[in-house]
């Protein structure tokens, strides 16, 4: 990623990782190290491990790109701030025409720390769960405008799992599934009948509860 040997593990991954067997967790962890350190593409996983890998490795790739941009000087100020959210002091220029008491403590205002790209990572989770992959740019814009909390993201994922089983979404090979941006702008996760499903099948909502 950069001169620093390592990568971030996000607290949001704890619940999904708890769903894995020790064997699958070991395989994914080993693949993550090889992906970051040696740039080896991850293998094809099965079952629960495949669902976890679908959102873990895109986030690793995003972090690697941010770190690379930061090491090279960065493409934009915003990207550099995402890599290293440093707090830099803003010192007002001294007025040499004013008497200054150098023995007096001076409070130097500081910039607030830059918020990490939490919503970009949450959007990756939403995008992987939504069955209709069209208009990704518009969908991401709508998603970041909402700025969903972890709890709201869970509610969205629960609603998607239920709505995927509805007649409307299953009819004509998904022809009537709303575009993801439309679904977000119309707050369709609040539609009636989108309560958390009560069955024993493995579904995406289990990984983020």
Detailed description of the structure:
The protein is mainly α. It has helices at residues 14-18, 22-37, 47-71, 77-83, 118-129, 136-146, 150-163, 167-170, 180-185. The longest helix is centred in the first third of the chain and has 25 residues, at 47-71.
Sheet/helix structural class: mainly alpha
Low-confidence stretches: 79-92, 96-100, 197-209
Average residue pLDDT: 75
Sketch the major β-sheet: none
How many H/I helices? 9
Amino- and carboxy-terminal Cα gap: 30 Å
Radius of gyration, in Å, reads 22 Å
Rough outline: globular
Give a short summary of the structure.
With 209 residues, the protein is mainly α. The protein contains 9 helices and no strands. The chain is globular.
